[in-house]
From TrEMBL:
It comes from Thamnophis sirtalis. This is Transmembrane protease serine 11E-like. The chain crosses the membrane at residues 12-37. Gene3D superfamilies: SEA domain. Keywords: Membrane, Transmembrane, Transmembrane helix. The lineage of its organism: Eukaryota, Metazoa, Chordata, Craniata, Vertebrata. The keyword Electron transport does not apply. Residues 41-159 form the SEA domain. The keyword Membrane applies. It comes from the Eukaryota.
Length: 163
């Protein structure tokens, strides 16, 4: 009668298999964490709208003028309030008035909005949420700036995204 004897694995072989399995698991977890949390992209949006209750002043041409800074501060506060208590509040990195220009019966404001999102976020949904949140605030009559809603536009671009 032939007896088949299985030889147990050597201890160094077991250790090698355990290390290999742990290495594969660590790599998988590391890649998941990177792509889901740390692979964040910057999204740049340009919002423009007309302020009806302000008349254009030549000093608005200079971003360093007191008049430009004062109106810019009011607009930037408006933008922050638009995203306050929304899921976008912690994603808004910066808002900056880049230009104030003359418009028919008012001042045209161009504002740069910078958001940080993870790469897996739906770009169309993000744009819609940003557009709607800002539109809702611009429509509110509680703000001292009177905005012409028909002039409101939002365009966006993702930095380092494959759109």
């Amino acid at each position: 009668m032939s007896q088949s004897r299985t030889s147990p694995l050597a201890p160094w072989m077991i250790a090698l298999i355990v290390v290999a399995v742990l290495l594969v698991l660590a790599t998988a977890v590391g890649l998941l964490v990177y792509f889901l949390i740390y692979d964040q992209k910057l999204f740049f949006y340009n919002a423009s709208f007309k302020i009806k209750n302000k008349q254009y002043q030549p000093s608005y041409d200079k971003q360093t003028s007191a008049e430009f800074r004062e109106l810019s501060r009011s607009i930037e506060i408006l933008i922050k309030q638009a995203f306050h208590a929304t899921p976008l509040e912690n994603r808004l990195i910066n808002e900056r008035v880049v230009r104030l220009s003359p418009g028919n019966d008012g001042v045209l404001a161009d504002v740069l909005l910078i958001f940080r999102f993870i790469a897996t976020d739906n770009k169309e949904t993000l744009w819609t949420n940003i557009y709607q949140s800002l539109l809702k605030k611009l429509k509110s009559s509680t703000w001292p700036l009177s905005i012409d809603i028909s002039s409101y536009k939002l365009s966006g671009k993702c930095y380092r995204c494959h759109l």
